[in-house]
Amino acid sequence: MTRSSLTTPPPDAEAPRPLLTEPTALGSHYSKCFGCGTDHPTGLHLNARTTDGSSVEAEFVVGEAHQGAPGLAHGGVLAAAMDEVIGMSIWLFQRPYVTGRLETDFRMPVPVGTTLHLRAWCTGISGRKAYLEAEGRIGGPDGPVAVSAAALFIEVRMDHFAKHGDVAAIAAEHHDFEVNP
After folding, report:
1. Under 8 Å CB-to-CB from 123, ≥6 apart: which residues?
2. What's the rounded Cα separation, in Å, for the pair 131 and 157?
3. Is 44:78 a contact under the CB 8 Å cutoff?
4. Cα–chain-centroid distance for residue 64?
5. What are phi and psi of 61, to 5 degrees?
6. Cα–Cα distance between 89 and 1 in angstroms, integer?
7. Which of 26-30's residues contact partners 24+ apart within 8 Å by CB, and which partners?
């Protein structure tokens, strides 16, 4: 599959240097997040973990609230799952990033009731830009790829979230403006 030049690392990009070396559960960055929040009533409820410090894995069960065509996952929901697992993988570097560009390829339909096995990893970092990829597989971590994505994330300062978001919610859940618990 061909990626755009916007989601392909430049030749001078550095290999990512994760800070975690042990298998680790990543947890939710915000309880009401649509992607990983435990308190979002119709969210994806991704429970991500890293086993190697360089990639993130999670599962997502497609529910009735996630369908587009009858009985099938909505493409936007699948794109949101890709964005979330990619965002969790960039957390391995423990710096705040936001999505700059997300390219999603839908390879096969994903029926309601399916468990989508997600995996994401970083392919390079250049300045404030991080280049990442992800895939969602049906039937297990080695099953056929139903959806894949490539992304460009941009490193920001934590005050970005205070300036553009809900400062009270940030303060209530993230003491000292941590990226993740």
Report:
1. 9, 13, 131, 132, 133
2. 18
3. no
4. 21
5. -95, 120
6. 21
7. 26/50, 26/56, 26/88, 26/91, 26/180, 27/180, 27/181, 28/181, 29/91, 29/174, 29/179, 29/180, 29/181, 30/169, 30/173, 30/174
Strand (E) or helix (H) holding 62: none
Q: State the DSSP H helix or E strand holding residue 71, giving kind and residue range, or none if neither.
A: none
Q: Residue 23 is which amino acid? A: P
Please indicate, yes or no, whether the overall pTM of this predicted structure exceeds 0.70: yes
Residue 90 sits at φ, ψ, to 5 deg, of -70, -20
Return the closest-CA partner of residue 72 out of 64, 82, 80, 61: 64
* Ordered per-residue pLDDT tens for the chain, 181 residues: 567 788 999 999 998 887 888 888 888 877 888 888 888 888 888 889 998 888 999 999 999 999 999 999 999 999 999 999 999 988 888 888 999 999 999 999 999 999 999 999 999 999 999 999 999 999 999 999 999 999 999 999 766 555 656 656 655 665 444 444 3
